[in-house]
Amino acid sequence: MKRKQAEEIIKSVxxxxxxxKSTKGKILYILLLLIVAVAVVLGGAFLGLWDxxxxxxxxxxxxxxxxxxxxxxxxxxxxCELVECDGKYMLIDASENGHENEIINYLKTLxxxxxxxxxxxxxxSDHIGGIPEVLAEFEADNIIMPRLTKSQTPTNSTYKAFLxxxxxxxxxxxxxxxxxxYNLGTAxxxxxxxxxxxxxxINNMSAxxxxxxxxxxxxxTGDAETxxxxxxxxxxxxxxxxxxxxGHHGSSTSSCNKFxxxxxxxxxxxxCGEGNDYGHPHDKAVNRIKKHxxxxxxxxxxxxxxxxxxxxxxxxxxxxSMR
Length: 323
Hints:
By secondary structure, this protein is of the alpha/beta class. It is about 35% helix and about 25% strand. The chain has helices spanning about 5-20, 25-40, 45-55, 100-110, 125-130, 130-135, 155-170, 225-235, 255-265, 285-290, 300, and strands spanning about 70, 80-85, 90, 115-120, 140-145, 170-175, 180-185, 185-195, 210-215, 215-220, 245, 265-270, 295-300, 305-310, 315-320. Helix 1 packs antiparallel against helix 2 (about 25-40), helix 4 packs parallel to helix 6 (about 130-135) and helix 6 (about 130-135) packs parallel to helix 7 (about 155-170).
């Protein structure tokens, strides 16, 4: 019981007692004093009960349960995911040039004001194209990305704009190192790849992220192909997860059988553009994925996809009816 509340009740009882004349009234008055004394000794059981009745959330165990939401944003033939947990935000990639306004507007609609982490899976234009505009619009605390060798480094204008944006940002820039772990609210995420830095194709330099929230787990693979998938397996990475973001937009060069056998996804999301020039997702990859799950969601069909975890169960919603 709060001290002030107890004092007010005792004062009120005392005021009442001054006006009591009958023997029966005095007995009731003494009983009331005893009840108040017991309440004070027991730490305010009565007031605690009253507080709970006044505030239903105080006795509702669900009121304090947090959730983790993963948004797979429809950005055409590119990648862009947003993770939100306990008011903290992580953006993974920002698609190709021309989709930056879609991403910015999506984040603003959610009320995002700051990004705690920006993960750049790798430096291809369909993953970094919108980064400059996003960093100009939102403060970012940390940027995590693979460190490329000179021979791997792109030289196009998109990459130069990306570098200039990083220089202008006040964010801490960190190399994506295998084993590095971070907190995002009550969720945690770990870098599983790239294991080596000698890949000829920087698809296989993708920063692969495993996100854990309660009993649920999500895997974000960038454009990792079979080469990197097998390297992670050989390195002993914990790839088993509930939700897989398929590598390389559902290309046949990704999602190999050994990798999927280790991942065992319950849900798979493929980020690709409608009628794209690459024919993504490829039937071979989709058929391999469907050996593990029939719950395959594609941004070209579904639009924006949101998966919500309460730490135990998952729910999926999406923008469009699947065509």
